[in-house]
Each structure stands twice: as C-alpha cells, then as structure tokens.
Amino acid sequence: MQTAETSTNPTDAAVDLGPATALSCRECGHRVPLGPVFACEECFGPLEIAYDFSDYDAEELRKRIEAGPANIWRYAPLLPVPADVATKPNINPGWTKLVQADNLARELGVTGGLYVKDDSGNPTHSFKDRVVAQAIEAARAFGFTTLSCSSTGNLAGAVGAAAARAGFRSCVFIPHDLEQGKVVMAAVYGGELVGIEGNYDDVNRFCSELIGDPAGEGWGFVNVNLRPYYAEGSKTLAYEICEQLGWRLPDQIVVPIASGSQLTKIDKGLKELIELGLVEDRPYKIFGAQAEGCSPVSTAYKAGHDVVRPQKPNTIAKSLAIGNPADGPYVLDIARRTGGAVEDVTDEQVVDAIKLLARTEGIFAETAGGVTVGVTRKLIENGVLDPSLTTVVLNTGDGLKTLDAVAGTGLTATIRPNLDSFREAGLA
Amino acid sequence: MQTAETSTNPTDAAVDLGPATALSCRECGHRVPLGPVFACEECFGPLEIAYDFSDYDAEELRKRIEAGPANIWRYAPLLPVPADVATKPNINPGWTKLVQADNLARELGVTGGLYVKDDSGNPTHSFKDRVVAQAIEAARAFGFTTLSCSSTGNLAGAVGAAAARAGFRSCVFIPHDLEQGKVVMAAVYGGELVGIEGNYDDVNRFCSELIGDPAGEGWGFVNVNLRPYYAEGSKTLAYEICEQLGWRLPDQIVVPIASGSQLTKIDKGLKELIELGLVEDRPYKIFGAQAEGCSPVSTAYKAGHDVVRPQKPNTIAKSLAIGNPADGPYVLDIARRTGGAVEDVTDEQVVDAIKLLARTEGIFAETAGGVTVGVTRKLIENGVLDPSLTTVVLNTGDGLKTLDAVAGTGLTATIRPNLDSFREAGLA
Q: In this structure, which CATH number among 3.40.50.280, 3.30.360.10, 3.60.150.10, 3.40.50.1100 belongs to the domain B10-55+128-230?
C-alpha cells in the first residue's frame, strides 16, 4: 500500500490528519473524504474540515496544550495535522505576543482592557505563516512535492520560507511588474518565482488553469486546492488570544477583512473552545475592519444587505485589497449574530492609526494593522464598541513591508554637531 | 526618601536591580555602587555588573525560570532588574526560536547538530531589543525620563519602540543623510529623531559632549551611561540557547563581532550557568565572525596579537561595521581560551550565505547573519570548526532591514498567462 508520504496520486493517499475526519460543505453539509479539494461536488459551496473532538476531556486537553511547544502546534489536537506534527520540519509560527496596550487604551479611552495580538512576530512577519504552515502539513499528507500560490506580497514570502524549511519545491506566481522590494522578499528563499505578464486577476486565472492541467499534478496551491486546511490556521489566533487571556474569551475582537476567511475562522475557533469547555460560554462580539478604498463587506453591512457587491480596490492597505471577498456573506452573518459590526476607515486614517500604535505601544504595523486600529478608534467614537469591555485588536503584519505608507515620517530636527545648535533647536 | 521611580537625581536613587549588587571594573576590580556610570574612576576600565547569586539552589532556579514568561524576563533572577520586572511596561524581547537547521547542516556537512538562534523574531527584529529592554529597566531605576542613543540602524528602532511602550521620551541621534527607509523605521515610533550634520563619528562625539552637559541631565544613553546594564541583555542569548537545548551547553557557538560586547556577554552567561549548576561543566568553544571589510579582531587573531588595530569599515554588513571595537581584546582572550577562533568573510560570501540560509531554512537574515553563516561554512572548510559537534550559529537581525544586500535576487522566469508559455519556460 502506498503511504501518504510517498504517494504521487493525492486522492488515493491514506492520510493521517489527526482529529480531522472529513471535508464538509459549509452550504449543504455534504461530506467527502479528506483530500485536496475545496468545492462541494453537490452545490459548489466551500468545503471545511470536520473534526472528531468527542474523546477530549477539557482539563486533560488544557494541560496537554499548556505543555506543548511555543507555537501553533500546541493546538495540534484541534487542527488537521498528525499528532507528531511538531517533530516535522515546518516554519512553526504562532504563540505571538498578546500585548497589553495600556498606552493605546488611555488614548482611546478604553477602560476594560485593550490588547493587541501582534502577528508581526511570526517567522516571515505576517499571520500568513499560520495558514501556510497548515497547508504544508496537508501537502505532506497528500504527497504533494511542489507548493504554489498566487500572491502580491505576504503570502509569497510565507510560502517560499515554509517550503524551504519543509523540503518542498516552491513555485510562486506574481504579476511581473511588482515592486522590486517585494520581489526580493519573495525571491530570497530560492524557489521558483514566476512573473506573469498581466495583473493579479490574470495571475489567478492562470493558476486555476494550471490546477486543472496535468502540468499542475503534484502541486499544492495553498489557497486553492489546499484551502480547507490552509484556512484552519486562522483558528489558532482565537485559541492563542483566549489562552493568553487566561483561558477567557475577549468581550470584543476587531479583525481585518480581506477574503473574510480569517474572521470566520476566528469565530469557529472561539466556538470550539466553548464547546470543548476550555472557556466559559458567554457572549463575544466580532467586529470586521476594512479600508474605505476596498470596503465591500462594510458597505453591505451598513446597507443591511446579505449579499456583498464586488468593488475595484483602491487603497494603501494592499494586503486587504480583495474586491470580491469569498467569505463576505459569512462575515456579515457573524458580525450580526454576535452583535459586532463592520466598519471602514480612509487611507489617511490608516496612516494615522499606524503612527498611533507605534507611538503608544512601540508596535510598527503593516497597513492592515492601521485598518484595525483605525476602525477600533472609529467604532469607539461612534459608540459602537464598548470601551468598558475587554477588547482585542489584531495586527496581522509588519510595517517593514509597507514602509511607503509612512514614508512622510522623518527627522524631527537637523542640527550641527554641537551643543549650541542642540539648544537652538529647542531640544534641551 | 526619594524612590527610584520618582527621583530626578539618578545618583541619589535607591535602586532595586534584583541580584545586581555593584559595578565592578573589568580591568582592576574596583567596585562602585550601582549607578549610571560606565568607566572605572581608578583605571578607566569598563564597568560590569556584579551579582549576588549565592542564595540560589540550582533545581529551584531552573523550575522558576521554566515557569517564567516566554521572554527574557524568565531570567530575571540572573539580570540587573527587579523581581517584578515582567509586570512593568517594556518591549519584552527574547525567547526567540532556536531552529534545528537540518537542511543547512546537510549542505555544510555538519553531523553533530546545527542550530540557528534566530533573533529576527524579536519585537523590532534584531537582538538590540534584548539590550535596550535592559537599559529601559536601568533608566527606570535611576529616574531617567529621556532615553537616547546614537545609531545608524537597528538600535534607533529598538530604542524608539521600547521608549514608546515603557513611557519614556526618546531622542535618537543619527547622521542627517541616512537612507530614507532607515529614517522611517526609526521615526515611526514618534520620538525625537535628530539628524546631525556630519558622519557617525560626529554623532558619537556630540553625544559624549551632551552627556557631560547640564542639557543631558536626566538622559539615559543606552549604550553609554547605561552601558553596563544594557550589555547584560546579551547574556540572555546564552541562557536561551542552553535552555532550548535542554539545559545543555552547545559544543561550538558562532557569534558576530561589532563592538565585541555580545560575544563577551555570551561567554559570561555560559560561565554563570555552569557556576550555578544549571548545565554540566564541560568545554565549549566560541567563534567570532566579522566581515572582511571590517575585520580588526579577525586580523589581530590571525596575527597572534593581543591588541586590536582600528580599521576604516567598508562592508555591506553595516550593523557590524565598528572599526575600533571596544571589547576586541576580550574577544581575542575568549576565542583563544575556549579553543575557538575569529574569522572573516567577503561581502560576496556574506550575500551567498544569506541566500544559503534562506534557501535551506526559510530564514531571511540581515547581513550580520550572512557573516555568521558564511564564517561557519569557512571554518568547517578550513577544518577549524568540528562538524561532528553540536554547533549554534547566531542570526541577530532581519533581512527586511538590509534588502539592498540581495537586491540582485529576482524573478526566475517571466511568462504570459497561459499553459503554453508555462511549458515553454520549462516549469512543468
């Protein structure tokens, strides 16, 4: 019998993905065996991982997690990975800092406790390491040998780095005219980095073609045919936040929206912790954050719609610039069901928020972090977010990757190298 | 009585810096009370922290450390900080990954276990967060209100971020014509960022003037008048490496040399762990790594000299470009005493080593990391470093901060968005 490790035909592989038992359609509930598929054969709905957690005792599980490694694999019992995942070569992201943001809280008038979950501490400095690390384990289980994706930024670096560590070939597709800095960040890991003559939509269309072609056999596209596994990585943000709060749910959590997947998986993670008895069952509110220049979900939320109308993105928050977010309707559901909201801020407010977070907490966030902090401020000012409740704001990336956003920041003074000049400048 | 927290006259403050009892001259042993001084009044030698560790029981101490936070404050009992340091606002660096670098080991022929201590995981992505976090606690104890330094890179960002979090004013001095990207990285934290019309030497001379002037009263210069405290932060690298190896000394460790302080403090940390009974007492070898374009210590080592002759730096490894390293003679001592060595590599070898580390382990290192990996390779090839022994290589910074070094890296292919073009490029 072929083992998963050596199989060249992924669908025949005998897979061990721990507590994951099947793929289940989010729309119609149709189940299929674990494999590299992402859309329901019955209704074309998105497939999600189904688990068997029935054997777990809450107290034992908590102890097992707390004794685990300082990365996402401490939650291996709740993820689609084999029990010995921590022994395999991978990028091992997670267990990033939950920063108690007292200075920011004072500025925003938050009295109930404000925390920043700072995912810039991941290996390639964005939350993408979490999802790619999951995709790696799925790729290993299905016998894939090449890891691939389309990307314009964070994902390319995360795939390149993780593939290098885990011993996969990587082949990443990007628009051919991407800024040189971003190309370097993705190219340094030594995988194939292919420029496509066209825009990001052309890149995606090409990848879809490749998946259906024999040339793409043995290729795992992290956010396409491995998407159900990949997406589960975002649950670890929910797990970590609760564990770092002392196994307590936050009252309010502010999450950026690109495809919307991260927000839905954070909700899934919180619900799982409640069902498993790891946290007390009480209400929490999830708030979604977008940039005004790409705010299809926020626009639908405010209009009271269930359907999200695509937009053409035009914002500096490029890592969130998905004009037609696949999980938009689910995000609307969750925001409404939990008593949260979806809000957006202008690019100017994004920049202000990046500077506010840096100045108060010493955290230099990517534009996506400016979006969540800016939206938090706006929601407090509008009386939507309750400042007397425990609030967690996500920073999902690193300011070093979006330096252009704050390029106007500079020297506060220029002086000659002597004390007179120092005094003249009013610095004494 | 004035408390340390509110004192405006640092030297009068009653300080609680945990196990630290005095400052002791490294040259003549003369002791002075803990305070913001850095040179011996008797012989002008460098002052170091003296500790009282006599009450510690090895087993209790180990348990206390293991139960501590996932940052450098787990080692509070061994650092010049108060016991409740973890409750104070600080940047909380450390507990970065010790990556088991099996792919790199295969490339280099290391069979005894090769590890990369990856300090790019720190809050501002360099090891400077460790030393600045220490300086912050000393500044707090001495009642300083402004944190300052001269810098051309990593240190400026580390000081800006830590000061923001800890509630200090910061005023950082840099050459006025620094690259815009580096200015932005330092300016975003909102402190004073003052450009000095002159080169880095002019900046340093001005800072020395300022320290002696009333205008500098209440100012803590992290690497000048707070240097004895600041420097101790590097000990935590030694502690973490041993704890992460399962409370075991590495056989060989490769450390970059700028001022040489980090290498001497790693040696101090290893010796302390042996004396405290936290690790077995057996030999270890410390190797120093420099770039050829700034290799005063390596040059002295190879010539068999005890004295280090200053050089004018000319290398892409700018974070190591100190032509007159203060701790150079101590580094020579340590390399010779432990059976290690000091070696240097060319800029071309630095770039090759950055790419090698990225390609094998998915770690994108700053040029300083290219220096240590490049030197490791060279020392193995020359038969100086024993590949059958456990070896730890330090990466002290992040590739995102020195993108220029690998600017030549780029697309491996450019294709049109169709399968024919994909096949023509030989990618299938």
A: 3.40.50.1100
